[in-house]
Amino acid sequence: MQEILIMSENTEIAEALLAWYRENKRSLPWRDRHNAYYTWISEVMLQQTRASAVIPYFERFIHDLPDVAALCACPDEKLMKLWQGLGYYSRARNLKAAAAVIVSDYDGSIPSSFETLLKLPGIGRYTAGSIASIAYGIRVPAVDGNVLRIAARLSGYQGDIKAPQFRKVTEAKVMEWMPDGQAGDFNQALMELGATVCVPNGRPDCGSCPVREKCEAGLHGLTDRIPAKQEKKERPVIHKTVFVILDGSGHALCRRPDTGLLAGLYELPNTEGWLSREQALQYVADLDMEPLYIEQLPERKHIFTHLEWKMKAYRILVKEKQGLNSGEKMFFVHPGEEENYAVPSAFGGYMKYTELPEKA
User: Fold this and answer.
1) Which of 40, 148, 201, 347 has the most CB within a 10 Å radius?
2) Which of 198, 259, 150, 185 is nearest to 18 (CA)?
3) What is the pLDDT of residues 2-48, one digit of tens each?
4) Cβ-based neighbours of 113, under 8 Å, separated by 6 or more
5) Cα separation of 182 and 167, whole Å?
6) What is the pLDDT of residues 83-131, one digit of tens each?
7) Based on the number of CB atoms within 10 Å of its own CB, is 79 exposed (0-12), middle (13-18) or buried (19 or more)?
8) Which fold would CATH assign to domain 237-354?
9) Domain range 10-219, its CATH number among 2.40.160.60, 1.10.340.30, 3.40.50.970, 3.30.413.10
């Protein structure tokens, strides 16, 4: 691995970053609260989601689950509904699992020790560093993708920033930069710089950067090449047919299996492959329902981390009846009941069609 992070002006970098942060930091509902629970929840929500998008989810979550004890006691259905729209539902499950450990082993108080935090379900080095430094002022690094990108640009490093050795060296350098007594603000300053100035997509705002005079990538016009772009692997594509089934008083939902993708969440009925109108009508008839009306809906796609769904869909009105084939695990949701069921965003584009069509 090439030499990286060779800068020696630790005091200058820290002073410039902290001064910039205090002047320019965004007002966020979890910031400057010295509340370990707020820090923990927000950092998990912020993984792969912008702060502006997280704010309403965070506020709703904290309103309903204001502390660790409430999170521990929250029914799974309600937790999934509160998390709906953020994706990566396993993170919500890990939050509850960690809350259970905190309640049973730590009397409901989130530990301050970095090493202890790492032992909790779903908490890695970055989240543990964030909680320990921001909430408790402990001098530990919190290195995420933003910090790795900044480190690469400052040093001119053109290798893979996801390499474990690069993270290890970056954490060591952050500790060198970090002034005593200001761990939380310093880590947040790096995060804020990466989120608002030294951005991952598009051109960084180098003119607003407080450490631009120390930045090898900026000084040599390499910000479009650093960090190095990694070749993207093609995602497998799965074709699905989705059904918006209406019976005149509600719409059908199914519960997904307890393991695997979107485990335990609710979905519109669907099957793999793209069905014709005739095949779609037969699919519904095989569920022991009598189709009365069918309408094809727009095609949509949803991209997960490792795969892509390409979906076509039909809205089908069926004759109202009592009961369905028991093996289908399908039921009808009636007006006012929707809030009880967490439906992932993969189906969000079709949920607006769950109202009865006017021509029916």
Assistant:
1) 40
2) 185
3) 445 444 456 789 999 999 999 999 999 999 999 999 999 999 999 98
4) 132, 138
5) 21
6) 998 988 999 999 999 999 999 999 999 999 999 999 999 999 999 999 9
7) buried
8) Nucleoside Triphosphate Pyrophosphohydrolase (3.90.79)
9) 1.10.340.30
pTM: 0.86
Using the structure block, give the residue that is written with the tokens 């608002």.
196
What tokens were used for 191?
């995060």
Does the active-site annotation cover 290? no
Which neighbouring-strand residues pair with 245? Answer: 316
Structure tokens at 24: 């320019």
Closest CA to 140 of 180, 175, 186, 176: 175
Q: For residue 285, give the amino acid letter.
A: A
CA atoms lying within 13 Å on the CB side of residue 43: 28
Closest CA to 177 of 208, 209, 147, 144: 147
Residue 235 contacts residue 180 (beta carbons within 8 Å): no
User: Could you tell me where the beta strands, DSSP code E, fall in the chain?
Assistant: 237-246, 251-255, 266-267, 270-272, 291-303, 308-318, 330-333
Q: Where are the domains of the chain?
A: 10-219, 237-354
What DSSP state is assigned to residue 23?
H
Longest dimension (CA), the chain: 75
